[in-house]
Predict the 3D structure of the following.
Amino acid sequence: MNEQANLQTVQRFYQTINDGDLGATLKLIADDLDWKDAGADKEIYSWSTPVHGREEFEHYGKATFEALEFQVFQPDEFIVDRDTVVVLGHERCLVRVTGRVVEANWAQIFTLRDGLICKFREYSDTAAWEAGVVKR
């Protein structure tokens, strides 16, 4: 795939997430997906766990939407290099279990193969997330 097609796939990914359309999101995911939220501690973020494959991503997506209400999930900048798309953005989420709102910036790195997302890494403001997630 060319860079423009890879960019369009990642842009569609964000659109499906913002639409809450997990079925459409799954169509953009490779069967052998390798997904990790770097720095996310499973003990703190119950929904965040390494994901391997489309089926696990479906469970991850459902758990994430159950745990969080996304008020803003906004990609701000796209950087494309062959099969890699780096996205800088921000989010504002209500953490349902604590009732707190988290505002955080993030960097997300997508690797694509044959038009599908096969690898993902996210680096976000873990201090902001811990403040919103940890029960006091």
In short: Residues 8 and 41 are 31 Å apart (CA to CA). The domain at 3-133 is CATH 3.10.450.50 (Nuclear Transport Factor 2; Chain: A,). The helical segments are 3-19, 22-26, 54-67, 126-133.
